[in-house]
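Appendix B, example 12.
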Amino acid sequence: MKNLFLIANEYINQSDWKDLAMLKFCLFAMGLAIGLFVPSKSKKAVLMTSVCVFVLTYLPLMAKFFKVAFGKKDWEIEI
């Protein structure tokens, strides 16, 4: 398992934003495909779970993004 994490870290280090965007689209498409097979009676529970996972992962990701974006001194951000 430790090797898997080392390989994953190296993959991320060798990737650019386009590679990560493709990875996200791939996972999104897979999630949609799996979601189509959820029985009707379970769709609400699956939706609530996915919303919770989204919020719990989105907030730290955006916090890190803004920390990186506004922490840089080498360039200015134009708004």
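Residues 1-37 form one domain. The chain has a mean pLDDT of 89.
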